[in-house]
């Protein structure tokens, strides 16, 4: 996962321009022997993975985002952005790698016959999170069809390495999310700053 994250970190793409990132995710999914479903406009990907044998009746989606920000990197690390004025400053490269990791681990466990319980998972690799248009884009592409619940993630530099945090309600104190269902669900509601 580290190498995937670093590959993406070197090659960030702005919202509405995630074509190479989408293609890279498709290649990673293909390497797992799974079927990548490319969203409209060739930006964004969904991947379904169902347990063999008995299958859960509920499908859980796990979402990560693909886009980067229009910020100039100051890093001199080997994996620093190669695109002038664009960088993954918000962790979306890590989110993409983590969602791929979920697929890879479930796929590997299933291949060796180790699964805790029946499952139906959909990985959603969402473009354009930073412009708040990617959720609608993926919904229009069918990403939430047959999905009963969804998990999103965000890296948090205040957490110790190897730990996770779970929040109920508002994800961050600086925002208030209007949770609205549109066409069966929503990824990003209207964010109101300054709350």
Automatic annotation (TrEMBL):
GO molecular function, one term: hydrolase activity
EC number: 3.-.-.-
SUPFAM superfamilies assigned: Zn-dependent exopeptidases
Keyword Acetylation in record: no
EC category: hydrolase
Record flagged with keyword Hydrolase: yes
Keywords for this protein: Hydrolase
Domain of life: Bacteria
Alphabetical list of NCBIfam families matching this protein: amidohydrolases
PANTHER family: METALLOPEPTIDASE, PUTATIVE (AFU_ORTHOLOGUE AFUA_6G09600)-RELATED, PEPTIDASE M20 FAMILY MEMBER
Name of protein: Putative hydrolase YxeP
Gene that specifies this protein: yxeP_1
């Amino acid at each position: 996962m580290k190498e995937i994250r670093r590959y993406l970190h070197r090659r960030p793409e702005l919202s509405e321009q995630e074509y190479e990132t989408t293609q890279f995710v498709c290649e990673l999914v293909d390497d797992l022997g799974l079927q990548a479903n490319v969203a409209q406009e060739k930006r964004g990907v969904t991947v379904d993975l169902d347990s063999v044998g008995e299958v859960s009746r509920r499908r859980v989606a796990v979402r990560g985002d693909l886009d980067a920000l229009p910020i100039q990197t100051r890093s001199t690390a080997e994996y620093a952005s190669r695109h002038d004025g664009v960088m993954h400053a918000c962790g979306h490269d890590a989110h993409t790698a983590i969602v791929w990791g979920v697929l890879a681990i479930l796929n590997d466990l299933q291949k060796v016959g180790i699964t805790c319980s029946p499952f139906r998972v959909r990985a959603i690799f969402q473009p354009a999170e930073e412009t708040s248009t990617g959720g609608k884009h993926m919904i229009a592409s069918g990403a939430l069809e047959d999905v009963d619940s969804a998990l999103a993630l965000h890296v948090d530099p205040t957490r110790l390495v190897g730990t996770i945090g779970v929040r109920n309600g508002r994800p961050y104190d600086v925002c208030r999310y209007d949770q609205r269902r549109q066409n069966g669900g929503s990824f990003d509601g209207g964010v109101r700053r300054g709350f």
